[in-house]
Design goal:
The complex is a heterodimer.
Chain A (H helix, E strand, L loop, with lengths): L10 E10 L2 E11 L4 E5 L6 H8 L7 E6 L2 E2 L5 H7 E4 L11 H11 L5 H14 L15 H13 L5 E5 L7 H16 L3 E5 L3 H7 L2 E6 L2 E6 L1 H6 L4 H10 L1
Parallel strand pairs in A: 3-8, 3-9, 6-7, 7-8
Antiparallel strand pairs in A: 1-2, 1-4, 4-5, 9-10
Chain B lengths: L2 H9 L2 H41 L4 H16 L2 H11 L1 H8 L4 H26 L2 H9 L4 H16 L1 H14 L15 H12 L3 H30 L13 H4 L4 H5 L2
Helix pairs in contact in B: 2-3, 2-6, 2-9, 2-10, 2-11, 3-6, 4-6, 6-8, 6-9, 7-8, 9-11, 10-11
The chains are: A alpha/beta, B mainly alpha.
Chain lengths: 247, 260
């Protein structure tokens, strides 16, 4: 998966705040992901993990704080242009059910990157090959399993050659036996040097693949560090309690 | 003649039908189709604009769409057709002459648009927010995401209701006779009505009714077919699996058809 990783950049989230009415979802989140590194964000549900991801590509605009790609703030950029640089994969895949798998991948290539049909198809087929689904190009998403759909969603994001990839509980909606294939693709991508932020409940994945693990609770990163520090020498009692529950 | 056979003759006078049939098929049917199809096209385009305006975040788009829909859904079709067809006739005279068709089609379209707009709006609003998020995350603007991802899915879901509206249009097209039609402009209803009036026998009008049914009944069945197809997905044409994880495929399929 090296082809798409040559351009990955560092990501810095600085003191990001966000409130929905009286509900303060993010209360000053900091997260630094060096170029090519993988950060796994763990924590109980409702802690703001998914919202944090959405402020990075500005699907939700933060109230305060900054998001930097390659050391440069992106908050004043055109959000649509920013989102072409930041790939995102969702819990529910969000594939377009009225289009074939191939067209799901080529749509943005053609409309946003303005590639010709042949070129877009070639890129898409190569990307589908990398996630092991070259044979499904003409199928509709509904004809695929959840695991296959999620791999298509990853291929769709990677086809745009993103500089950072965001994964929002990418395996949470999958049947247990399908999780491994998706995590495998993500691990390959991480090993290939993609800068990644992975919100996950898969502690095994976080332990093996992450360079940094960040524990979020009630809208802040309570503790962050290399996986061994987080999993073996957790300091904060809330993190210890969380790990005791999930491990 | 006994009353029963008089009654029979009134409706089923084969000679009267045979006399009316050629004009019915060569003049009435094409004219009905011209009215209904043109109004369906224009009404659908206007309906789509109304639907998009109706879900807009700007109240300056939402409000006019709301008022328009209330007015044109609330007025009797006959009143709308007369108001537009007669009221705008002096204007139409300047542009295309005395032909009542353009204004008739316009009036039918404006009525249909109010209904079709509501149908499309409900379809578009039924598409999960996650679809918009997925498209926006790829870098599509709101407009592109709506045009390429949300609207096509939303309209697909309400095709049965849309076809019902086409059926209503075919029937309502008979109302343009209010606007005064010369012989060659008469549609199915008017031709049947004219024969019935001159002969005092309703058979030709019954024949016109049969022509309407020949158009609308297949459409109602098309609605059912589309509905079934949307519910259960297209007939299985899945390409043979060469993938290593065939077993996974068995788990799919059920999800898509259930969303409506």
């Amino acid at each position: 998966m090296t082809a798409s990783t040559t351009t990955s950049v560092s990501l810095d989230v600085r003191d990001v705040h966000l409130a929905f009415g009286p509900n303060r979802v993010l209360r000053g989140v900091d997260l630094a992901v060096p170029r090519g590194a993988t950060a796994c964000v763990i924590g109980p549900s409702g802690s703001g993990k998914s919202t944090l991801l959405r402020t990075i590509n500005r699907l939700i605009e933060p109230d305060r704080g900054d998001v930097l790609l390659d050391g440069r703030s992106v908050l004043r950029d055109d959000p649509d242009a920013l989102r072409q640089r930041v790939g995102m994969v969702f819990q529910q895949f969000n594939l377009f059910p009225h289009m074939s798998v191939l067209r799901n991948v080529t749509l943005a290539l053609r409309r946003l990157r303005r590639l010709g049909e042949d070129e877009a198809e070639a890129v898409a087929r190569a990307q589908l090959e990398l996630v092991g689904l070259a044979g499904k190009a003409d199928a509709r998403p509904a004809q695929l399993s959840g695991g296959q759909q999620q791999r298509v969603a990853i291929a769709r994001a990677l086809a745009l050659r993103p500089e950072v990839m965001l994964f929002d509980e990418a395996t949470s909606a999958l049947d247990p036996e399908l999780v491994k294939g998706v995590l495998g693709v993500m691990a390959d991508l991480s090993a290939g040097g993609m800068t990644m932020v992975v919100v996950t409940h898969e502690m095994g994945f976080a332990r093996q693949v992450a360079d940094t693990v960040a524990f979020m609770d009630r809208g802040v990163v309570l503790e962050a560090g290399p996986p061994e520090a987080i999993f073996e020498r957790a300091e904060h009692p809330r993190l210890r309690r969380f790990l005791a529950q999930v491990l | 003649m006994d009353p029963l056979s008089t009654l029979w003759e009134t409706f089923f006078d084969w000679d009267a039908m045979r006399e009316a049939l050629p004009e019915m098929l060569t003049v009435g049917l094409p004219n009905t189709l011209i009215l209904a199809v043109s109004a369906a096209l224009l009404g659908s385009v206007l309906g789509l604009l109304l639907a998009v305006a109706g879900i807009s975040r700007s109240r300056w788009l939402r409000w006019p769409a709301r008022v328009y829909t209330d007015v044109f859904r609330g007025l009797p079709a006959a009143a709308t057709i007369l108001l537009i067809g007669v009221g705008l006739a002096p204007l139409g005279m300047q542009v295309w002459g005395p032909d009542p068709y353009p204004l008739g089609i316009l009036a039918l379209s404006l009525i249909a648009a109010a209904y079709i707009g509501e149908i499309f709006r409900s379809g578009i609003q039924s598409v999960e927010a996650a679809q918009l998020e997925g498209a926006r995350a790829l870098g599509f603007s709101w407009g592109d995401a709506m045009r390429l991802v949300i609207i096509p899915q939303g309209i697909r879901r309400v095709l049965p209701a849309w076809v019902n509206q086409l059926i209503a249009l075919i029937k309502d097209s008979s109302l343009v006779y209010f606007l005064g039609l010369v012989a060659s402009q008469r549609e199915l209803f008017r031709i049947g009505q004219d024969y019935a009036a001159t002969t005092g026998n309703e058979s030709a009008l019954l024949l016109a009714g049969l022509c309407y049914l020949a158009l609308t009944v297949p459409l109602t069945h098309a609605v059912n077919w589309i509905d079934r197809r949307l519910r259960h997905g297209r007939p299985a044409t899945a390409p043979a699996d060469e993938d290593e994880d065939d077993t996974e495929s068995a788990l799919s399929g059920a999800t898509e058809g259930d969303r409506r």
